[in-house]
Write a structure and sequence with these properties.
Radius of gyration: 22 Å
Shape: elongated
Bound molecules: zinc ion
Largest sheet: 5 strands, mixed
Strand content: 15-25%
Length: about 325
């Protein structure tokens, strides 16, 4: 590193190229320092008593609060909490997941990072997916297409045999797409649903679309009464096969096709239904930032969200189910 160049500051700077990334994050120390500035722009905040900028270093990576003597570190209470994986590896993982146009599978991440275990890569990706949804994110608005679709998943183990498919699932999902004037798509939301009735679709609409927006749906009874909960409602009733779905609902149709291609291409469709929502979050995260000027900025945003997302245990990632490979 050039000693005359000022150190990059977390919270202000972000790397724009891989070579710059390598230059900035050459050591654990450099990563930790960047993360501290990103998480605590106004000085270390004690998680116990809330005191800001009143802590001293207790060791290389630990701080001690001068008010209450509580010890903490920059990774405590974040996605990186208690992981044995080095920050450098985490940073590189975030770089890959945000810089590859279609993301990366756990097997791919294990290879590029040279990780000893597949499980480490798989768990890293799942922890990062938890950081891809911001709690207070803005709802979709304007004209929004909403429809149900299906994604096809298969459970198989790519380490054993490519042909060994032993389960196939078709999972219903709800898709919402902002339709722009005169053409083009804005942001999207996708979620797994248990059925195609109002009980499933209404909460999806309420939680993802701003009241006052115009919701465009097909003629399904599940969408009846949207006017009573604050939405404009535009219905396109399919009369037999006179209007193919891709013409009357082009947004949802297009997103469903892209999603299926991504699940099959990057992940070979090998996803357990109980984990599908987290993959949907990743797809939405990438799609909604597809116009981002800089991939480095995406890296920065995900890193920022990761230090503002509480930790998730390995058990919670697995959620009681058996380990699978993707
Ligand atoms: Zn304290």
């Amino acid at each position: 590193m050039d000693p005359l160049k000022p150190m990059p500051v977390g919270g202000i700077d972000y790397p724009t190229t891989w070579s710059q990334f390598l230059e900035w994050f050459h050591s654990e120390e450099a990563c930790r320092c960047f993360l501290e500035n990103l998480r605590w722009p106004n000085g270390v905040q004690c998680p116990k008593c809330g005191a800001v900028n009143n802590a001293g270093r207790a060791s290389r990576d630990r701080w001690v609060c001068r008010s209450c003597k509580h010890q903490t570190s920059v990774t405590t209470g974040t996605v990186f909490d208690k992981t044995r994986t080095e920050l450098r590896v985490w940073f590189a993982g975030i770089w890959y997941i945000t810089n590859q146009k279609h993301g990366i599978s756990a097997l791919g991440l294990q290879r590029v990072l040279g990780l000893g275990s597949y499980e480490t890569a798989w768990t890293m990706l799942h922890r990062l997916r938890r950081a891809m949804v911001l709690p207070g994110r803005e709802l979709l608005k304007g004209l929004v297409e909403v429809d149900e679709s299906y994604v096809a998943l298969s459970e198989r183990n790519p380490l054993i045999s490519k042909a060994q498919k032993y389960h196939a699932h078709k999972i219903p999902v709800a898709i919402a797409v902002e339709m722009l004037e005169p053409k083009g798509f804005g942001r999207i939301r996708i979620r797994q649903i248990n059925g195609r009735d109002a009980e499933q679709l209404r909460p999806f609409i309420r939680e993802n679309i701003q009241p006052g927006s115009v919701v465009h749906t097909d003629g399904s009874a599940a969408y009846r009464g949207l006017e009573h909960i604050g939405y404009g409602h535009q219905r396109t009733v399919h009369m037999g096969s006179a209007t193919p779905a891709h013409e009357s609902m082009p947004g949802v149709h297009r997103i469903a096709a892209l999603l299926q291609r991504w699940l099959l291409g990057t992940h070979h469709g090998a996803i357990q239904p109980r984990q599908l929502d987290y993959y949907l979050d990743e797809f939405v995260f990438r799609f909604n930032r597809r116009a981002s000027r800089s991939r480095g900025l995406l890296f920065y945003r995900l890193l920022e969200q990761a230090v503002n997302t509480p930790p998730v245990t390995y058990k919670a990632v697995i959620r009681g189910g058996p380990m699978h490979l993707d």
